[in-house]
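Inverse folding, one chain.
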């Protein structure tokens, strides 16, 4: 069993949750990251063989974008490269877990 923990942009959240539900994956969403950057956390428990499918959904839905508040003046500054750290797209970790408990309610 694996637990995928991810931090994603709030603007990508709805499309991500729809894609994960269509793929048959249940999710838990929680507050995470810097509130100024509008990030949320997503947890998904899956069998090990389903991890590549989950990560492919993240790659397809979560689009790179410059962080809010960054302004670049031509000739004075160069935009950062579009990688996971600079572009504010999904960041995730895949953890080993022994089991999951599903809590229904509230």
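Residues assigned per position:
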């Amino acid at each position: 069993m694996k637990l995928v923990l991810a931090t994603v942009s709030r603007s990508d959240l709805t499309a991500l949750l729809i894609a994960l539900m269509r793929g048959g994956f249940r999710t838990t969403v929680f507050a995470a990251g810097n509130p100024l950057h509008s990030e949320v956390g997503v947890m998904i428990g899956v069998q090990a063989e389903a991890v590549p499918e989950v990560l492919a959904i993240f790659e397809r839905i979560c689009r790179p974008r410059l962080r809010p508040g960054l302004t670049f003046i031509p000739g004075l500054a160069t935009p950062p490269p579009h990688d996971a750290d600079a572009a504010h797209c999904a960041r995730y970790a895949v953890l080993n877990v022994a089991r999951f408990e599903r809590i229904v309610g509230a």
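Residues 10-22 form the longest helix (13 residues). The beta strands are 2-9, 28-31, 39-46, 91-96.
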